[in-house]
């Protein structure tokens, strides 16, 4: 299958999906390696396609998803062992953890898309960290990191932040 045709299919599949699609799944559908898919995604992004890579796979940002009804940036500080509790606390209030951001002394702000909205997604994210032996970005900054939170109501974010503050995870 020619590259242009494959990229059009990938774009179409991502646009039609309401959930992230793993690179390995796209590779299987198109009968190419995952590395070819990584290159295809990079080319699509270079053509200004609003595709993001999340811990669950690739997503195409639809117009209604580009602007969240309510967003808030928080600064957290905790040990890696408290990551599950922090993320569960947030998603249990109906809030999505859009990303994690750390300030690297050489590279500046490093941002990774998370898009975690449920306990199941948090568990899958943490399982992937464990099975790949990857480190949390916050280990680069002694536990200090930022999250962009998104929710349907301001109250959901305020309630999540209140509980995070009570647990000692938020920096003021």
Q: Helix-strand pattern, N to C?
A: HHHEEHEHEEHEH
Oligomer: single chain
Low-pLDDT parts are: none
Strand order of the largest sheet: 3-6-4-5
Question: In terms of structural class, how would the helical and strand content be classed?
Answer: alpha+beta
User: Can you give the helix content as a percent range?
Assistant: 40-55%
Distance between the termini: 54 Å
Main β sheet profile: 4 strands, antiparallel
Shape from CA axes? Answer: globular
Q: Beta-strand percentage?
A: 15-25%
What is Rg? 17 Å
Per DSSP, the total helix count is 7
Number of strands: 6
Q: Look at the structure and give the mean pLDDT.
A: 91
Tags for this model:
alpha+beta, 4-stranded antiparallel beta sheet, 7 helices, 6 strands, about 45% helix
Q: Can you describe this structure?
A:
The structure is a single chain. With 172 residues, the protein is of the alpha+beta class. It contains seven helices and six strands, in the order αααββαβαββαβα. The protein has helices at residues 3-16, 23-30, 34-46, 63-66, 83-91, 119-132, 154-166, and strands spanning 51-54, 57-60, 70-77, 96-104, 108-116, 144-151. It has a four-stranded antiparallel beta sheet. Strands 1-2 form a two-stranded antiparallel sheet. Strand 4 and strand 5 form a beta hairpin. Helix 5 packs antiparallel against helix 6 and helix 5 (83-91) runs antiparallel to helix 7. The longest helix has 14 residues, at 3-16. The mean pLDDT is 91.
């Amino acid at each position: 299958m020619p590259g242009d045709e494959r990229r059009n299919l990938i774009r179409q599949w991502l646009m039609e999906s309401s959930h992230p699609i793993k690179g390995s799944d796209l590779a299987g559908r198109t009968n190419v390696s995952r590395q070819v898919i990584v290159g295809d995604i990079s080319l699509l992004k270079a053509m200004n396609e609003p595709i993001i890579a999340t811990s669950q796979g690739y997503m195409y940002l639809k117009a209604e998803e580009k602007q969240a009804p309510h967003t808030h940036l928080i600064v957290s500080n905790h040990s890696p062992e408290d990551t599950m509790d922090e993320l569960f606390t947030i998603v249990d209030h109906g809030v999505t953890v859009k990303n994690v951001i750390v300030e690297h002394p050489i590279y500046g702000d490093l941002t990774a898309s998370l898009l975690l909205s449920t306990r199941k997604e948090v568990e899958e994210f943490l399982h992937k960290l464990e099975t790949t032996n990857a480190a949390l970005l916050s280990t680069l900054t002694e536990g200090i990191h930022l999250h962009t939170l998104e929710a349907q109501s301001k109250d959901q974010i305020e309630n999540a932040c209140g509980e995070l503050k009570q647990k000692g995870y938020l920096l003021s």
